[in-house]
Every structure is written in C-alpha cells, then in structure tokens.
C-alpha cells in the first residue's frame, strides 16, 4: 500500500504501521490534517498486510489540539437541522479505526482535545504520560457539543456521570485521572511509553493474523445483546480454529511446555516464543 501524506508520516515495519501526526504548531485538525486522516483511515482499513496501527505525534505537547473552529464556523446553517440516514465523513473515519481488522493504538503524550480526543476514543487502546497527557472536550464552552463521536463513546467508556463532567464541564482530564476512569489503559513516565507501545505492537503483530482480527471483531460484538454476542463468538471461534496458522501455533505451544506446571507459571512469556 502507498502511504503518502502532507501532515502524517507512516512507517511500516512488518505488520505494524506507525503513524506520526505532524501539523505544526499545535496539530490542529485543519482541512489538511482532516483530509489526510480520512484518506489514512480508508487506506489502513484496506491494507491486508497489517495487524497493528499506532497513532502518535511529532509534537510532545499536542496529540491533536482539536478540530479547526474556523472550519466549523463555515459549516452551512441555512437549512433546518436534519437527521441523516448515513454516518457523516468524520464519524465514518472514526468508525474505521474502531472496526478495521487491525489493533489500533493511540499513544497520547500531550494534549488530545475535541476531535483529537474523539479520534483517540475510536482507537482500541490508549496510553498516556504522567504529568503530560491531558484530555479535553472543549465544545460546550464554545457553544456546541462534541460532534465527532464524543457524546457516544465517552459514556460507554467512562460512564454517564463522568462523561458529563468531561463534556459539560469542559475540564482538563489529567493522565492519572483518565487512567483511573478508564479513558487510558495505562500511564507511563515520559521515557517509558514508547518502549511499551512498541513492544506491545510487535508482540501482537507476531501472533496469528486471523486470531488477532477475529478477536477484535468478537470484542466489538460485546455491544450486541449478550446472547447474540455469544453466538457470534462461537462462530468466530470456529473460523479461527480452521486456520493452518492456529493449528501450528497450538502444536508449538504444547511442544514448548504448555500445560505443564513450569510452562503455565510463565505462560505469557511462553506464548511469545511461538512465532
């Protein structure tokens, strides 16, 4: 696949794509960055060779500041508001990161505000830096609401009351609180986040491709009614079981000492030796 953008640098190594956002001075999601992210999401979704996507920033202070308010002021308002039958382009972009058959990781080392926070919310995993990562939904204080998935994703992630505090309060959510509330998976010292994310990405990319993809699909089905989600899980398990890669990996697991006392006491390290 070809990854050429004005505001993004994409480095592909094996099954991992590292995407660095670089739109000085504050990584504002202006027209250029927005168009690049739309194209990126579609290109990543269609790439059959990837297992993991990492989004990070070249700017240590900002992941993405927010969507360009000047562009919002230019949105047409002549006609009466209407409900659409299809998702708008921003929602489609975010949904691609949520549903694409790759594990998507947001490495948040600075501020993620407005639409930048909503993009991060759409990723599967989010990691931050103690004393540096800051989350803010700044829409209500300027007279609008989060319109890029925030009012729907935040309550599902942190709960209704906390989501309202973030959204209606327009408060800065620090890294430690964001981790405690469930917005961030983990927080690190500045020097530790990149090694952790890189190691996790490489680890996941080394596992059987179909298993990674089907596992994410099945977890996404947790939003279905439980009985329907369980039926889908059983079906996806059957699909995974029929791959040659799965059967080879299971045999290697047993050869390496799986299902022995010694092997099971270090099972996380043991399975990392299968590829």
Tell me about this structure.
The protein has 275 residues and is α/β, with parallel strands linked by helices. 47% of the residues lie in helices and 16% in strands. The protein has helices at residues 31-46, 69-73, 89-99, 114-122, 150-158, 160-169, 175-181, 193-206, 209-220, 226-241, 244-255, 261-264, 267-271; strands at 8-13, 16-21, 52-57, 62-64, 103-108, 111-113, 125-129, 134-136, 173-174, 186-188. The strands form two sheets. The chain has a six-stranded mixed beta sheet with strand order 1-2-3-5-7-10, sandwiched between helices. A four-stranded mixed beta sheet has the order 4-6-8-9. It is globular. The model has no long low-confidence stretch (mean pLDDT 97).
Query: Terminal Cα separation, in Å?
Result: 25 Å
Proportion of residues in β-strands: 15-25%
The tally of beta strands, per DSSP, is: 10
Helix segment tally:
13
Largest sheet: 6 strands, mixed
Strand order across the largest sheet: 1-2-3-5-7-10
Indicate the structural class.
Answer: alpha/beta
The stretches of 5 or more residues where confidence is low (pLDDT under 50) are none
What fraction, in percent, of the residue positions are helical? Answer: 40-55%
Name the helix and strand elements from N-terminus to C-terminus, one letter apiece.
Answer: EEHEEHHEEHEEHHEHEHHHHHH
Radius of gyration: 20 Å
Overall geometric form = globular
Name the assembly state: single chain
Roughly what is the average pLDDT, rounded to an integer? Answer: 97
